[in-house]
Specification:
With 342 residues, the chain is mainly beta. It contains two helices and 26 strands. The strands form eight sheets. Strands 16, 19, 21, 22, 23 and 25 form a six-stranded antiparallel beta sheet that branches. Strands 17-18-26-20-24 form a five-stranded antiparallel beta sheet, with no helix packed on it. A three-stranded antiparallel beta sheet has the order 2-3-5, with no helix packed on it.
Amino acid sequence: VSVTIEPQGAIDAGAQWRMTVGPDTGWHDSGDVISSVPVATYTIRYRAVYGWERPANQSVEVTSGGTATTTGTYVSIVEQGSVSVTIEPQGAIDAGAQWRMTVGPDTGWHDSGDVISNVSIGSYIIRFRNIADWIKPDNQNIEVVDGATASTIGTYLVSFNFPVGGNFNPTNFINAIPAWGCDPQGENCEGGINWETVPANNPHSSDPTALEFTVYFPPNPYMDPNATEPVQAGMNYTTPFPWIPIDLTGATKLTFWAKGDGNEVVRFGMGGLNLSGQDSHSVDTQDFVLTQEWQQFTIDLTGADLSSINGGFRFVGTFQPPYSGYVGEIGTIYIGDAVYSN
């Protein structure tokens, strides 16, 4: 005697069969064969399985030298669907981003695009894994309906971690200070730029640190106190050495907040570097005049190729005279809460 059980979902749930009388009345899996059964008529019974309606008892006729077979088909009595989650951007996936259900038939961590089957209909919560240097998405609710796949998208945000650390660091200065203030040989040109963290009570929003970028000049006897040329200085935030680019595919904007000590003229941008390869996108804004109040800025990245980015953020400030005799601080720019998002 041999019995086939269908469907696979019922088998996975523990469906089995047995003979009510005969040489072997124990429970058997689908496809098992009981041998040495005397010629006669026998009854096949199916095991009760949660979530499935078992088949009615069946009769099989054993003949000499033959194998009596039958098929028992279970019917699902619990409506079920599937769950799948897509994670963006690719850089977060490369960094180990995953998702999981908080309850259900499978609560393990899953990669982007994985599918969990045999999920009973109802509402579920999707949670995303913490990974270094990325801001994970908030928990999301999904609704599973019978026979369909419930899906959602979780988008991680790039963490800048001003002033240092994270995906992008202040790697190099943008220093376009004119070549005045030099000795007669054109040497010993003085000038400098500096940055530091803002005290915790000063940054915008909940950003634990913000970038304070200060332009200053040390004393120099060759500087012309009557010079009228503006000073330009700024900074690139790039991926750490060895400059492995980040895939930011899925992001559609870069938002950040900025302010100054008053009347600093600044333009912002991203991309455009050629460190370990040319960045796949580059954009610069117009010049903005900063005030002493925080302002939010947005760089639109809709449709941009963000598959290979080393230059995550940059800014260049233009500082106008007078410079207090070119000694000391001449201007400060504050940046905070910078994130890529969709």
